[in-house]
Amino acid sequence: MSLQQFLHILRARYPLIFLTLLVTVGAAAAVTYFMPKQYTASAVLVVDYKEPAVDAGAMPISFSPSYMATQLDILRSRKVALKVIDNLKLADSPAVRDQFLEATEGKGTIRDWLADALISKLNVEPSRESRLMTINYEAADPRFAAALANAFAQAYIDTTLELSVEPARKSAEWFEKQQADLRARVEQAQRKLSAYQQNKNITATDERLDVETERFAALTSQMVGAQAQTYDAESRQRQMEEMLAKGSSMETLPEVLANGFIQSLKAELLRQEAKLADLSEKLGTNHPQYQRAVAEVKNLREKLDKEMISVTSGIRNNARLAQSREAALKASLEAQKARVMKFKQSRDEIPTLMREVESAQRAYDVALERYNQSAMQSRINQTNVVLLNPAVDPVKPSSPKVLRNMALSVFLGVMLSLGLALLLELLDRRVRSEQDLSEALGLPVLGVLAKGTA
Q1: From CA 350, how far away is CA 432, in angstroms rounded?
Q2: pLDDT level of residue 152 (50, 70, 90 thresholds)
Q3: What is the pTM of this model?
């Protein structure tokens, strides 16, 4: 069928097409007019993702596609719907009870029946690129629709809070019951440790804090110092004896050379000897000044010899004192070592008892910490869902949609009228153009008489 033939059919059947279109549009207009009006109220929620501490390779919750799907399922759940029913006290309405009895003949519960009815009118739309959720509720009464939308929003917020708080509350109750047993274990382990310490006369469980151990460590340190002093004193004495045995003068000893007083005496002696030599050239040996100078030199020399002898005696005395002190410290150290070893044998059981105390204390501390955390979480009165835009009474009905219904009726009327025209044309085939005649007879058309030609 060519386009020209199709246009001829439309022109021939236009009364039928127009009538069919008119009937279809009229029927749609009538149905739209008599359909009950429905109003849709919308409440907007903001869902704030709470990122928990996760491993570096784990997917953050904000990128998890299941999180928002889970929230949608919770919002559309029967638990939320039952909260709405209880909050609005819908089950107490006599009219609702009559509707329930009429619809179910008393089978089931009115709360479950109402929950199914409310969920069927609920529509939740998540945002694709944000954390918003829109709750749409449709009802014949605009005020009722707004009230139900806000009620679902509040019930969802309460449910999310309950889901986050209830596990923490149960956990807190369980840990609270365990604390008594764990506290008793700690006290029993501490009593056992204290009794053992009193029995063995151990004042400190840590060897580093024990008096005997501290004393042993102090004696050991003193012993090391005494040994070093003895070695130094003996070395100095041995060096001095060797130098004196070889005929060296005491004046060449390192200790003498390092003595400031002796060096000052030597300097004074040299000065007096130079003075004596000068006087010996000017005065006689019997001159009083010369005699005083001789006496002064003699006195300085005796004092110098006495000081050098004192230095050598001091070196020997220091060596003997160092040896004596080392021997005394060694004896004290051996006695203290024996006492420490005795206490150490008694302390061998201490680590086991301390581990029991520490293990019981750790278990109690962990339980106490978990209890405090759970108790704090169970008292949380805020959730990660916030009502951004509460629903208001809608002014215009959401259904029926007049423009959409009329557009659909025009489209369906056109399709139906065209289909009906083509169907009738197939059932009652007529010649409407020279092309129809040529196709029907299988012969070419030689000529066409113009309209109005005799």
Answers
A1: 119
A2: very high
A3: 0.49
